[in-house]
Specification:
Elements lengths: L3 E5 L2 H11 L3 E5 L5 E2 L7 E2 L5 E2 L2 E2 L4 H12 L3 E4 L5 H14 L16 H9 L6 H28 L10 H17 L4 E10 L6 E8 L9 H11 L4 E13 L7 H12 L3 H13 L15 H14 L32 H7 L2 H17 L4 E12 L2 E12 L29 E15 L6 H10 L5 H13 L3 E4 L2 E4 L1 H13 L6 H15 L5 H22 L8 E6 L6 E7 L2 E5 L9 E3 L2 E6 L6 E6 L5 E5 L12 E2 L35 E2 L2 E6 L12
């Protein structure tokens, strides 16, 4: 018979821990929270110093009964929920239900589900952390006030099914603001000038970019460019100065929650929600450390394991013992996300786990190893070339030692500055042959729309929310149809704009980035024991409730007009309107409920079916994934069976696929017009980002 009861949150975690602790321990799962605020009411006693009114969650009665019975049959109960604020609160609720003294040594917490991690935690139990519990309560009550006070107002004044939230409303505002910035953007013209030159000895051609004279010159029109070209007519191109040097590139630190979400989105194409689900499974299986963390710190044990693997796989030259400083204000309770056992290679995981688990594990594994590897080293060369009164500049680099880049490169990886730019051997005073001058017209572009990855990065930089909130936040605003995702890019919908305008007009503090960041800081201070949580709530609720009362009186009902089409309803003759349903847009008769006619919105590709020549239609699955089908694929006897999960390739060819689950969203292609280059002087027109007026385009915000 078991002597001890250990309560965790999930059955998967329970299964893993049971294998470690043996027969003396009985492991049970609480299945998340067992107590919470009621769904039917706000559940906070405002008159009684904001005391929460917790109730047992519906459907958990049998589980609670079972846990109570089992807790009486053992010597001791250990509460082993997740090592964060949420986990601490769940442990607190379990202690209340089971009659356990929270000041006793009842709480165990571990960062990794390994033999050592679990057994060490059992050896050193502690009392419940009241500060963490209070911080979670404060967050829960704040979110309840915002959600349960503003959401009904949106239902009443706009339409049913809407919601507001401290983090979600700010995220929507950021996406709307970015869209408005793009719409208001006015492109500005500028020009660049490249000289294609030849070195006489090696006969190697290379390019050099116009810089200016003594100072940099920005060329803003064709007229200015023509004057420069005229001045360069017949000019000799002479090497004026050569500067050689060395450049080092350091590896990225181990993953935090947000950097894992960003990198999995960029490299693997995983949505934030998908990443966290996979990471949860890896953690509960004992493969990685806890996946909700702000820390870049790793243990001495992990550092030792990394060293052994690097020396084994790459040799001593590739190893460097590195320490990463966790940024100010981050929660550093536990380590960065890393593999628990570095001798368990991705190749071994590939054989035993799903494809998604393997991909994410490999990402985490490679990132951790790379973080303890040597810097990459480049040889650099900067050349100034004089042409009359003007200067052209060339920059070359060649990788001398790949270091960590042998294994892993962060972000846009694989389009490296890695690509060597090798200049020929040159000497000061050397004359060069001009092959041609290539002037190019450019226009500045607006900032890029957010992707899930860049939105997470922006939220983190602005200190909005916490790593654990990003996935549910993005999921919620997508589900509410406040935003849409197309080709990984986030766009606000008309509904999102309307709700955001209401929030900005009537609840400006709730969507104010600075106010929200300050509230996060206060929650952190509660967790550190520096602030009283009920005082923080009281300071928020006073102005909030006063404003809410005014808004309820002054705010008019908002009518969202359906977009009218020029397509008549075949049943009653009214013009069909566009509506948004669970699975996207569709056409409906405005005469509902008298006329219930609806029809899908048909999108056609400008290509024909390769099997029968019919039109190719674009459709969406229930999961929102696009697929491509012949218009004659209609289930009739002579129907065409063409269907494709991916759109046309760069040559405009669309290939049929096997009939499996709908695949990834097809990539649209665009036609690129080739630029004709003329000897001596050729002109081309391109678009680039706003910041690239000087050099290169910046990446997403």
């Amino acid at each position: 018979m078991a002597e001890y009861l250990v309560i965790v949150e999930s059955p998967a975690k329970a299964t893993t821990i049971k294998k470690i602790l043996g027969s003396k321990y009985k492991i049970e799962a609480s299945m998340g929270h067992i107590r919470d605020l009621p769904k039917s009411q706000i559940g906070v006693d405002v008159e009684n110093n904001f005391e929460p009114k917790y109730i047992n969650i519906r459907g958990k009665a049998n589980l609670i009964k079972k846990l109570k019975a089992e807790s009486k049959d053992v010597k001791k109960v250990y509460l082993a929920t997740d090592p964060d604020r949420e986990g601490e609160a769940i442990a607190w609720h379990l202690a209340y239900i089971l009659g356990i003294d929270g000041n006793s040594d009842c709480r165990i917490a571990f960062n990794e589900i390994t033999n050592k991690g679990i057994k060490d935690a059992i050896k050193f139990p502690r009392k419940l952390d009241k500060n963490l519990i209070d911080a979670q309560q404060a967050r829960r009550v704040l979110d309840r006030f915002v959600g349960y006070k503003i959401s009904p107002l949106l239902w009443k004044k706009v339409k049913r099914g809407l919601s507001a939230g401290r983090v979600q409303s700010v995220a929507v505002r950021m996406i709307v603001d970015r869209e408005e910035e793009i719409e208001k953007f006015i492109p500005e013209e500028y020009w660049t000038l490249d000289a294609n030159l030849k070195e006489s000895k090696s006969k190697k051609n290379f390019n050099s970019r116009f810089y200016g004279a003594k100072e940099k010159i920005d060329i803003k029109s064709k007229e200015e460019m023509d004057k420069i070209l005229e001045a360069l007519e017949g000019a000799e191109f002479i090497v004026d100065s050569i500067k050689t040097g060395e450049k080092r590139r350091n590896p990225a630190p181990p993953f935090t929650t947000s950097t894992l979400q960003q990198e999995a989105s960029r490299k693997l194409g995983f949505a934030i929600k998908r990443t966290m689900s996979i990471a949860q499974g890896l953690y509960e299986s004992g493969l990685i450390t806890y996946m909700r963390t702000d820390s870049t710190r790793i243990s001495d044990e992990a550092r030792k394991m990394a060293k052994e693997q690097i020396l084994k796989l790459y040799g001593e030259a590739y190893y460097e013992n590195r320490y990463y400083k966790t940024k100010k204000g981050a929660q550093d309770a536990h380590e960065a996300i890393r593999p628990t056992h570095l001798d368990l290679t991705p190749a071994e995981v590939k054989e035993k786990y799903t494809s998604d688990q393997y991909k994410l594990y490999k990402l985490i594994y490679d990132r951790l190893l790379a973080s303890q590897m040597s810097s990459a080293v480049y040889d650099t060369m900067q050349v100034d070339i004089k042409a009359g009164k003007y200067i052209f500049k060339s920059n070359g680099s060649k990788i001398r030692f790949s270091g960590f880049m042998t294994l892993y490169v962060e972000g846009n990886d694989d389009e490296l500055e890695e690509k060597d730019i090798i200049l020929p051997e040159l000497e000061v005073g050397q004359k060069l042959k001009l092959n041609e001058l290539v002037p190019s017209q450019h226009f500045t572009e607006p900032p890029a729309r957010y992707t899930e990855a860049s939105l997470v990065k922006a939220l983190e930089e602005k200190k909005i929310g916490r790593p654990s909130t990003y996935a549910p936040t993005i999921t919620t605003i997508l589900d509410r149809r406040y935003i849409e995702k197309e080709k990984k890019v986030l766009h606000p919908t008309e509904l999102g704009r309307i709700v955001n305008k209401i929030m900005e007009d009537y609840f400006k503090d709730i969507v104010d980035l600075e106010f929200t960041a300050q509230m996060e800081e206060k929650l952190d201070e509660i967790a550190e024991g520096q602030k009283d949580w009920k005082k923080v709530i009281a300071d928020f609720y006073g102005p909030f409730s006063e404003n809410l009362a005014v808004v309820e009186k002054e705010m008019d009902k908002v009518v969202i007009k359906d977009e009218e089409t020029n397509i008549p309803c075949e049943k009653c003759g009214r013009m069909m309107v566009i509506k948004v349903g669970r699975y996207g847009k569709f056409m409906a008769c405005p005469g509902f409920p008298e006329c219930r006619n609806i029809k899908p919105i048909v999108e056609k590709l400008d290509i024909k079916c390769p099997k029968c020549g019919g039109d190719i239609l674009v459709r969406k699955s229930k999961r929102g994934k696009k697929y491509y089908i012949c218009e004659k694929n209609n289930g009739t006897e002579n129907a065409c069976d063409f269907i494709a999960w991916n759109g046309p390739d760069k040559n405009g060819v669309i290939k049929p696929a096997e009939l499996k689950a709908v695949g990834e969203t097809a990539k649209k292609t665009r036609t690129v017009k080739k630029t004709k280059t003329v000897k001596k002087v050729a002109t081309k027109t391109t678009k680039t980002s706003k910041k690239s007026t000087s050099k290169k385009a910046d990446k997403n915000a």
